[in-house]
Amino acid sequence: MTLDELRDIIIKYLYRYSISKIGISDILEIIILGVIVYQVIKWLHFTRAWTLFKGIFVILVFAMVAVIFQLDTITWLLSNSLSVAIIAVVVIFQPELRRVLEQLGRRNMIRLFISSSDEYSDDSKVISEKTITEIIKASFEMGKARTGALMVIEQSVALGEYERTGITVDGVVTNQLLINIFEHNTPLHDGAVIIRGNRIVSATCYLPLTDSMELGKELGTRHRAAVGISEVSDSTTVVVSEETGAVSVTKDGILYPNLNREELEEKLEHLKQGNSEGRDVFRKWKGLLHNERNEKQ
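Above: the chain sequence. Below: its structure as tokens.
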């Protein structure tokens, strides 16, 4: 297919769906739909559904390519599986859809359209070297005392649905606070804490358990929960065993058991590297804009 033929195909489809006249009602509809689409995308972005949504978007792009290039067999398969796909989407997103409908019923509509997403902004997820040091120190202090602990460090995938299962803390990460939370016979010791950036946002959180058969039978619910949360998100979880005092880390569904202080620091090193890379990119982008302004002046 030549470039001229490709251009003619694109022009034909653009002409077919072109709008001859735009009125005030059309503009109003565009604005309303734009706001709704923005809110839906923002809501999806701060849930685990965002990862699934990106997969669906890839399929839609593939379907568009099949239609444009008249790939009849693929188009026929996609069109006949559309009804099944809609039902599958409803089933997959059922928890998120129920939650957003509950929020619509509780919240003021005006506030809904102007709500801010600062709670899950990238800046709030920046973790400092001091915070990592405090986590490492608390882990081995609790290991010596045989105090079980489960600390989930949130990264790009938001853990809001698990955060809501616990009790809000919103405190700066320190080794004393972590030790006090997981101390035996205290109200907050059972469950996991979720760490976002340099703050403990929630404690006593319930996490999904892994179905993996590769974990040893000697590992309890705490370790299975740590692996489970790492399977459904990109979080890093530090686990302290109540029976042995051993410190372990889970990441991407993999358990790294019985780590010493240097090994734990190495496993958490990517948190600092990721943040520094992000800041470097921001600084370079900011510097380019500054240079462009100076050249224009």
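Confidence is low (pLDDT under 50) at residues 116-120, 275-297.
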